[in-house]
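Mods, move this if it's the wrong board.
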Amino acid sequence: MEQTQQTTKEYFKLLSIIHLALMVGLVLFGLVVSFFIADFQHPDNTSELARIIVYLVPGLCIAGLVASNMVSKNRVYQLKANSDLSAKLMGFREAMIIRFALLEGPGLFVLATIFITNDINYLIYAGVMVVLMLVKRPTMRSLIEELELDQKEIAFLENPDSIIK
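Not the wrong board. Structure tokens:
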């Protein structure tokens, strides 16, 4: 398989597109559930499933947040030892995709829970997951800080026409 060359500008643009796609997917699914599917007039608060979900939703959201932080920090920590900047950049992109997937998963579960229980109160948890994804948006600054890049690597990244191998 032949790899195409990519500039740093294209790299950050692609990283932003991946982030935006995952975040917008969660928001759009939330809108579909909220406006077109769910009937909030009759929430299910009494069934056995509803009693379990009351604890499951916040637990899963917290677990997703903790897992996203731990897994992405662990992967980024492993990347710091690598001397090849292009390998660091590809690894960072993978770490960010994993981070966002671990935040999006609980958000999708919450939206499915809203659909099942018709309880709009769970929408707050989905909103929190979207806000967390927004706060953890990948930027050049966050990449530099997380990977602890040296001045030479920073200068390379700041040039939008630099070619990543």
